[in-house]
Specification:
2 copies of one chain form a homodimer. Chain A is an alpha/beta fold. Chain A has 9 helices and 13 strands. The first copy, chain A, folds into 2 domains: 4-112 and 285-295, Nucleotidyltransferase, domain 5 (2-Layer Sandwich), CATH 3.30.420; 123-280, ATPase, nucleotide binding domain (Nucleotidyltransferase, domain 5, 2-Layer Sandwich). In chain A, α4 runs antiparallel to α6 (214-238) and α5 crosses α6 (214-238). Chain A starts with a strand and ends in an 8-residue tail after the last helix.
């Protein structure tokens, strides 16, 4: 059976998995990401990581997912919020010179979505939308088994849709983005505005929600309200069959999911609601989705 | 050369065009729509209209576009704002019993978008988004030469995305929809709120804008601001190469287009803006787009 290497570049670590199309895992490994990596250091570390994996097993193709924005055609990471020293990294041409096998590339939300499509429970739908709820708010869309990429690989940047005109400033420089209200960074920033208290992560925030902290509950409520408008837009535009939530925040789905689903369903045409399923996905390594970039044209 | 009949059902009239894939028009005709038509009267009139056309020319397939929401799979018009007595019209099964040839179906915005793709100037893009600016605010998306339909033919209902949370009530029953701010109905309703004056149509509204009427200018300004957020969402989600504006309101593009384009470009990542073209489309009959529904699988 053919083996494919999937690499997932995240803010905290770079993960690698060698896997078959049927989901058999042959090898897994990871290295820590260093947030101050320059272009050269980043490329050097990725190269060495792949060589290490190669010592352990073979693979016929490589798929790689990275934070964006990216330029899909030229295989370039334009920049990355979590690796701020990276700029216009010629990742794919660099790797192709070293590893003379097919190499596929996409952004992190897209590869996570592809992982959910191929390996999630009952997610092989004609039309699947995946929200990645982490530091930021990302999305990916699989239609008829294919990722929707937009012209340069930057489709489905749902976090930067406006939900409150002239609302809170987002990391992207614009105002009122959905990500400013429903993401780890959004929750922490809104909570800081309300209380002057800096929380460290989503867990701290949701722990306060569980403790009935008034401000945390208000921040979450505003987040759910605005995110429901973001999902409403996605439904009116794409009319998906299934919406799946992935990422760290989705672990706290019991604290907001029911309210979120009810709000969304109350805001859309009945015909759109009747045909729509919501689900929380399992925690697949993004590297499985990256490997799935290699599946196109491969037999089942 | 093969001939195709395209039928466009609008609020004012039903239009029919017999055309080849290369755009050669063999016959055109229309009948007035009666807004109080029941299901039976509607079907009878469409049937007779097609028989009249058949007396004049031949055709191998029929494409038909109607207001929505529709159920694409079953060929049903669920309801229509402009033909309020229609409900769950089994249009396609009715026509298939009478005309034993292939019959294709879609909603009016989608067929207008397909018409722009096939017959518009320089619109055969990999990724084309079309806004239909009329009584309502509609949209259509053509990707790799194919209409994006969503699961039941109700994708791209952009008019019912929220642009102002808890904003103005829309005809759909929801609040803050883009259509409530940027469409003929939206302009007239917002102008009535401000002045208690009922305008009759978009021309009257834009004439007031030209005359520097303060309220009309404010309504347009709010409309442009909110529509720019709607377009921003479309760009972040779909990352299209070209956005085209069609419909009655697009005739007044000189009164708002520059401001609209500038607002949109100021709100999106540079990489998305650099690859994006805006254009105003020509006035194609929707019936050409309906005929284009028949083109799939046909040689050029």
């Amino acid at each position: 059976m053919k083996k494919f290497l999937g690499i997932d570049v995240g803010g905290g670590s770079v993960k690698g998995t060698v896997i078959s199309k049927t989901g058999k895992i042959y090898f897994q490994s990871s290295i820590k990401t260093n947030p101050i990596w320059t272009n050269e250091e980043f490329l050097e570390n990725i190269k060495n990581f792949i060589f290490e994996i190669k010592k352990n097993t073979t693979f016929e193709k490589i798929g790689i997912g990275t934070p964006g924005p990216i330029d899909l055609d030229s295989g370039v990471i334009l920049k990355s919020a979590n690796l701020p020293n990276l700029k216009n990294v010629n990742l794919i041409s660099f790797l192709k010179e070293i590893f003379p096998i097919p190499i596929y590339f996409n952004n992190d939300s897209n590869v996570a979505s592809l992982g959910e499509y191929f390996f999630g429970i009952d997610s092989k739908k004609k039309s699947l939308f995946v929200f990645t709820l982490g530091t930021g708010l990302g999305g990916g869309f699989i239609f008829n088994g294919k990722l929707y990429n937009g012209i340069k690989g930057n489709g489905m940047e749902v976090g930067h849709m406006s939900v409150i005109p002239n609302g809170a400033i987002c990391g992207c420089g614009q105002k009122g983005c959905a990500e400013s209200y429903f993401s780890t960074s959004g929750f922490l920033n809104r909570y800081f505005e309300a209380t002057n208290i800096k929380l460290q992560n989503a867990k701290e925030f949701f722990d306060l929600v569980i403790l009935n902290d008034k401000d945390a509950k208000e921040v979450l409520e505003l987040g759910v309200e605005t995110f429901s408008e973001c999902i409403r837009a996605i439904i009116y535009i794409l009319n998906p069959e299934k919406i799946v939530f992935l990422g760290g925040i989705s672990k706290s789905y019991s604290l907001f999911g029911k309210s979120l689903e009810e709000k969304v369903r109350s805001k859309i045409f009945p015909v759109l609601s009747e045909n729509l399923i919501f689900a929380v996905g399992e925690d697949f390594a993004g590297s499985l989705g990256s490997a799935a970039l290699c599946f196109e044209g491969e037999d089942d």
